Amino acid sequence: MKNRGGFVAIGAGMVLLVLLIGGFGEVPVKAVAAVGDNPILDEMVIVDKAFREIVSAVAVGSGPKVLRALQPLHAASEKTYDDLHSGALTLPKNEKNISEFVNMDEKFHHHIEKLAEAAHKDNKDTMLSITKKLMDACVNCHKTFKQ
Ligand code: HEC
After folding, report:
1. CB contact at 8 A, 58 and 116
2. pTM of the entire structure?
3. 8, 40, 97, 103: which has the highest count of C-beta atoms within 10 A?
């Protein structure tokens, strides 16, 4: 019994350690997100993490890794779509250009779909060219809508 207790304590300590280490990378975004309930920031936390993984996967030319990295984006995109259409989104900048935001968001998710197709075929050249387009899409949207 005594020993088992010890193992449980070590296990709990490990989980805490993993949570602490895992948490550091996202501290700035999470801190902002905690201030108000902001659906765009919530999606961006997911997009940001996924995009880093996509870049590594494309860098090593692995279609299966790209597909794995893309998975969390599907649910996030649906939620943003719902929020857009229920009026739950607020933009930090150029709020009146919401239709342009919708266009950019749709284009972004169109590239994501194309990337998934290329990854299914393990087409490395196409994966690379689409990932470059995604990078442009991040920067373009932020230029217009992020403070
Ligand atoms: C269609 C528009 C759009 C696209 C595309 C987009 N973002 Fe964003 N992103 C935003 C907006 C708007 C904010 C600011 C949200 C706020 O502060 O309320 C933001 C915020 C962020 C943040 C929060 C960090 C900070 O300093 O405020 C990160 C990280 C981020 N985006 C990463 C990405 C990455 C990586 C991509 C591309 C793979 C991307 N975004 C694509 C609109 C977009």
Report:
1. no
2. 0.78
3. 40
Query: Do 48 and 89 belong to one domain?
Result: yes
pLDDT tens digits, one per residue of 33-74: 444 478 888 889 999 999 999 999 999 999 999 999 999 998
Q: Indicate whether 65 and 132 sit together in one domain.
A: yes
Residues 6+ apart with CB under 8 A from 106: none
Q: In a 3-state reduction of DSSP, which class is residue 36?
A: coil
The pocket around ligand 1, CB under 6 angstroms, is made up of: 29, 38, 40-41, 44, 47-48, 51, 91-92, 101, 104-105, 108, 134, 137-138, 141-142, 145-146
Domains of the chain: total = 2
Q: Ligand 1: which residue has its CA nearest to atom 2?
A: 141
Q: Which domain holds residue 138?
A: 37-145
